[in-house]
Amino acid sequence: MRLGVLDVGSNTVHLLLLDAHAGAHPIPAFSHKVELHLSQLTDEQGAIAPSGIERLCYVVAHALRIAEDKGSEEMLAFATSAVREAANGDEVLAKVREETGVELEVLPGPDEAKLTFLAVRRWFGWSAGRLLVLDIGGGSLEIAVGLDELPDVMESLPLGASRLTHDRLKGDPPGPEQIRELRRYVRHEIAKGVSRVARAGRPDRVVITSKTFRQLARIAGAAPSAQGLYAPRSLRARDLTEWVPRLSQMSTAQRAGLPGVSTGRAEQLLAGAVVADAAFDLFNVEVADLCPWALREGVILRRLDTLVS
Prior knowledge:
Helix 5 packs across helix 12 (269-282) and helix 6 (176-191) packs across helix 12. This protein has helices at 50-69, 81-84, 89-100, 109-124, 161-168, 176-191, 194-199, 210-219, 237-248, 252-256, 263-266, 269-282, 295-308; strands at residues 2-8, 12-19, 27-35, 74-79, 105-106, 131-136, 141-146, 153-157, 205-209, 234-236, 287-291. By secondary structure, the chain is of the alpha/beta class.
């Protein structure tokens, strides 16, 4: 069957179509992305502005038409932190449902971590042992650790790259004191969960997922996307430590000129690097492997598992 996954994230609305059946490797068939930056379309009260809701409805309706044209049999639509934490989140969901007929499932932060962990486990398999999975999204940082298909510990922290850039970094590039304050804040938030993660046991493998980590790995020398999904890619702590001060001195335009960095994500790359550097340091990570599967694939795998049962 051809399944559609519509991911309404803090940065992008991403439609992914896959050909899949129970017990088989899902095969990507089509991908469509729109950089909406929903987390930045909020007012001082944290509500998504009417213009943002209108734009979201248009993008969702367009994605639905694409999915239908491409033969999707079922649409799995979900939203993450931008809608979950919006002061008017219920209003946003109701408007999308009214205008498009699409029922967005709002994923709690721990569920994001759990489903991403599931995707990583299926990608690397049981031989990977105990996994520590880190995922920097636009609105939040997900942390999960465990030995089985579902993690023993799940953390979701308000440390997304887009959120931190919008709330805490002004100027292009931002000033040194802003970056120092961001670094203190990020490390304080991550440190709260270090002991809980440590009690789950030392990981045999650390895995990173999603766009921010992909870009950081790429600028640190990882294989480009043209080499395919199966090219091994990793990110070392020492490379992060070197790149954070370099990124802090670059303008957005200069970051956009780095290999693998898109124009739409260049502004928030510094905040993402600060979060990544802090997580590696506080969890004593020397090197992490990049996984091409993340939350969207986890949603698909969860749906396929229900077909088996």
